[in-house]
Specification:
The complex is a heterodimer of chains A (364) and B (312). Chain A is α/β, with parallel strands linked by helices. Chain A is 29% helix and 21% strand. Chain A contains eleven helices and twelve strands. In chain A, a hairpin with a 2-residue loop joins strand 4 and strand 5. In chain A, helix 3 packs across helix 4 and helix 6 packs parallel to helix 7. The longest helix of chain A has 18 residues. In chain A, 46% of the residues are buried. Chain B is an alpha/beta fold and 312 residues long. Chain B has two domains: 224 residues, Rossmann fold; 69 residues, no CATH class. Chain B contains eleven helices and twelve strands. Chain B is globular and about 65 Å long. The chains are: A alpha/beta (364), B alpha/beta (312). The interface between A and B is large, with 42 and 40 residues.
Chain lengths: 364, 312
């Protein structure tokens, strides 16, 4: 498959009064043509900062891209001039924000807001742009589009507004669509409609989607591939099946087993102890080590590299090192692994006799 | 189950806003249910369906437009002397949704938690007061050193723990938790839910757990009520509701929850709910009827018979 976007060794810091916050600490990923890549992680893990840097929407006065590049069609987006970036933003790469109540201009008619990118990027006449706006409203499933196009945002419900935001984002048939928690502010029934709409539209206009969310149910619904972020880094990346049925990183284990499935009732929920790391002063070694029940000595000293689980599946945890002890993942994860009928090698956690592995410790 | 002691009886509760005006909103419209001692009753529905208003009316943050709430046989909304009201307030407490907005930023944690202790005179000396605060902090998994800090020094999960400690300070019997975890991260949600479950067992509390996250509600609740447009459409034991949802709205709601399971997600069919699909005759009585023991559905006589057959 063709790569549409490559993010290489991206490091971003924010300068604040209390010091430098290292929000992104070396992120690498590729986005392929036509796929949906979900980025999951808790608040502060850096998922929104990553995508805002792709759109170049980070505040200029206090953010700094320390290193790395974002390659799109051979151009490094981090080095483009503002003028050049404006030609890409909203045309080739566009974004849907979390809160449909605040991402539309309350004083402008819906139609005008949809026409804006069409007139700017595609040099359409006002008349043609308006016709296209009506078509787009129909495309995202808004009834009576001819009347609705002349209404203001407050006349729309939350779900309808999010449809309008999607229509604006898709107006120029972007190659990449970034959706930052697009359904978090919506009810489950509306959420289901919006997710269906996005999947449907993706097929029609063949765009790649980066989908940010913290809801694993939504991820399972939309994603082809999943990247799990923690403490400003991707800690595990793989296809949806690999992440849900054969997760390798203890943080992913924690995330998956802390959600009750329909069968858990009496047993206590697995919970990840502690709180996320303070990125003002990121811990030495693995950022997840203080919350990791399977922590080893090396986790506190050295950051784990990515270990390959399969051609598409990588995880950054020392547990995958050939010399690491074999550990017992939580019950909920084991149940999933048993369910996983795929051909992923499960021998990666094999213990190899007496090892030279520093500070090996049997997990719980 | 029939023998269980009722702690709360909610009878034909109505809460209308802008009553009698053009923009009248029937936020809670003729809702009746019981809450038994020691159980967790879940309340789910979409935003605007009246689930929070129901909770707030039960605890008398709003005065009910009609109907009554009986707590241990006493009407919550009835006329009360100051002392009676105070006694009542001690039995019932609330945990709010947003841990960032529900703590006074200018009070130290010790004072946030001890406010109820002070009001009800539960501590005789300063030392006793602080002892109680320390104990509460430890109960919810925080340290005694936290007592002298301010809310902004805490993370969302920690703040919600403080909110729980505050509710527990007056040793209540019944706690209304209004979306206590929806503002928290997934990894923290489990911590708070585990804590609430543990406290419920230890202190024999009764919860009304309001949420829109159905999988968490299923996990924590014994019984679940589903609300739609101010009405309760279905009420059943948690497992029963998920296995055998009868009302078409409940079915649509359940079919809309994405499960963290890509294989089943690929094949899932979503049902949508159209209120017109009932085809009720004009003036046809639509009532809350018991289809199987403990399983109530809002339905007409005709639907009721149909549900009966379905559930056999």
């Amino acid at each position: 498959m063709e790569k549409v976007l490559q993010v290489k060794d991206l490091k971003i810091s924010f300068h604040t009064f209390s010091g430098e916050v290292q929000a992104i600490r070396g992120v690498n990923f590729d986005l392929y043509n036509g796929e949906t890549l979900a980025i999951v992680g808790e608040s502060g893990s850096g998922k929104s900062v990553t995508t805002k840097s792709i759109m170049r929407l980070l505040p200029e006065h206090n953010s700094e891209i320390k290193s790395g590049e974002i390659l799109f069609e051979g151009k490094d987006l981090t080095k483009l001039k503002d003028k050049e970036m404006q030609k890409i933003r909203g045309k080739d790469i566009s974004m849907i924000f979390q809160d449909p109540m605040t991402s539309l201009n309350p004083t402008m008619k819906i139609g005008k807001q949809i026409m804006e990118p069409l007139i700017k990027h595609q040099n359409m006449s006002r008349h043609a742009a308006k016709e296209r706006a009506v078509d787009l409203l129909k495309l995202v499933g808004i009834p009576k589009a001819e009347i609705r196009v002349d209404q203001y945002p407050h006349q729309f419900s939350g779900g309808m507004r999010q449809r309008v935001v999607i229509a604006i984002a898709l107006a120029c048939n972007p190659k990449i669509l970034i959706a930052d928690e697009p359904t978090t502010a919506l009810d489950v029934t509306i959420q289901a409609q919006i997710l269906e709409l996005m999947k449907d539209l993706q097929k029609k206009i063949d765009t790649s989607i980066i989908f940010i969310t913290h809801d694993l149910g939504v991820v399972a619904n939309v994603a082809d591939r999943v990247a799990v972020m923690y403490g400003g880094k991707i800690v595990e990346i793989g296809t949806a099946d690999e992440i849900f049925y054969n997760p390798q990183h203890p943080y992913t284990w924690g995330l998956i087993s802390s959600m009750p499935d329909m069968d858990t009732h009496d047993e206590e929920l697995f919970s990840i102890p502690g709180t996320p790391p303070d990125l003002l002063d990121p811990p030495k070694g693995d950022a997840f080590a203080p919350r990791n029940p399977f922590v080893m000595k090396i986790d506190l000293e050295q950051e784990p590299p990515f270990f390959k689980v399969s051609d598409t599946h990588y995880a950054a945890t020392w547990l995958l090192h050939p010399d690491a002890p074999k550990v017992n993942p939580p019950e909920a994860v084991k149940r999933r692994q048993n369910q996983f009928a795929g051909n992923a090698p499960t021998a990666t956690l094999e213990k190899t006799g007496q090892s030279q592995f520093p500070g090996k410790k049997e997990g719980k | 189950m029939a023998q269980r002691e009722k702690l709360l009886e909610i009878k034909n509760l109505k809460q209308y806003f802008n009553e009698g005006k053009v923009n009248e909103v029937k936020a809670v419209d003729n809702v009746s249910f019981d809450i038994f001692k020691g159980e967790v009753m879940g309340l789910v529905g979409e935003s605007g369906c009246g689930k929070s208003t129901t909770g707030r009316t039960i605890i008398r943050l709003y005065d009910a437009t009609g109907g009554e709430v009986l707590y241990d046989g006493v009407n919550v909304h009835g006329k009360k002397s100051k002392k009676q009201l105070k006694d009542f307030n001690r039995k019932m407490q609330m945990i709010f949704q947003d841990p960032y907005a529900s703590l006074n930023p200018r009070l130290k944690i010790a004072d946030v938690i001890a406010e109820g202790i002070d009001i009800h005179g539960l501590a005789k000396t300063k030392q006793e007061r602080m002892e109680q605060v320390y104990e509460l902090l430890e109960t919810v998994g925080l340290n005694r050193e936290h007592a002298n800090r301010y809310p902004h020094e805490f993370s969302g999960g920690q703040r919600q723990r403080i909110g729980i400690a505050r509710a527990l300070a007056v040793q209540p019997e019944f706690i209304i938790a209004d979306e206590p975890i929806s503002a928290l991260d997934v990894s923290i949600q489990a911590q708070v839910v585990n804590l609430m479950k543990k406290l419920q067992k230890e202190k024999n509390l009764t919860y009304l757990f309001i949420a829109h996250d159905l999988s968490m509600v299923k996990y924590i609740s014994d019984r679940i009520g589903v609300m739609y447009f101010g009405k309760m459409v279905e009420l059943a034991p948690a497992d029963e509701l998920y296995k055998n949802p009868l009302h078409p709205y409940t079915q649509s709601l359940l079919s809309a929850i994405p499960a963290p399971d890509p294989i089943s997600e690929r094949t899932r069919k979503r049902k949508s709910y159209d209120p017109a699909s009932h085809n009720y005759e004009p003036n046809e009585p639509v009532e809350f009827r018991e289809v199987t023991p403990g399983h109530f559905v809002l339905c007409s006589e005709k639907e009721f018979k149909q549900f009966k057959v379905q559930s056999k």
